[in-house]
Design a protein that fits this description.
This protein is of the alpha+beta class. The chain has a single domain, classed as TonB (TolA/TonB C-terminal domain), CATH 3.30.2420.10.
Length: 110
């Protein structure tokens, strides 16, 4: 499962990563980053290297990873989420990091 790199979340790095993927008919044999922030490219490539496919003719295609940081809910922490439209599009979102004073009352945003 693709994850949002924690350091990229802290640095508020988001963006679109495009990677050209070549398969041998079952697994990835080569990757070529076409665009994207380097920290996110590294995370996307690491994920793509784990992919395995049903047997098919060797092929090359471009996959797109969209990394999005959403506004945090005050004092509410949640994990990142992923939407997988494999193998062509993957969206990974994470809540932005926000600190709060646990001694204050937690009120919902209006």
């Amino acid at each position: 499962m693709p994850l949002y790199p924690l350091i990229a979340n802290h640095a508020r790095i988001q963006g679109v990563v495009k990677i050209k993927v070549t398969t041998d008919g079952e697994k990835v044999i080569s990757l070529e980053a076409e665009s994207g922030p380097p920290m996110l490219v590294q995370a996307a490539e690491k994920n793509v290297r784990t992919w395995r496919f049903l047997k098919h003719k060797p092929t090359t295609f471009v996959t797109t990873f969209e990394y999005v940081i959403k506004d945090p809910d005050q004092c509410m922490f949640s994990n990142s989420s992923s939407v997988l439209n494999l193998p062509l599009k993957i969206q990974i979102s994470a809540k932005g990091l926000e600190t709060c004073d646990p001694g204050t009352e937690n009120k919902p945003h209006s």
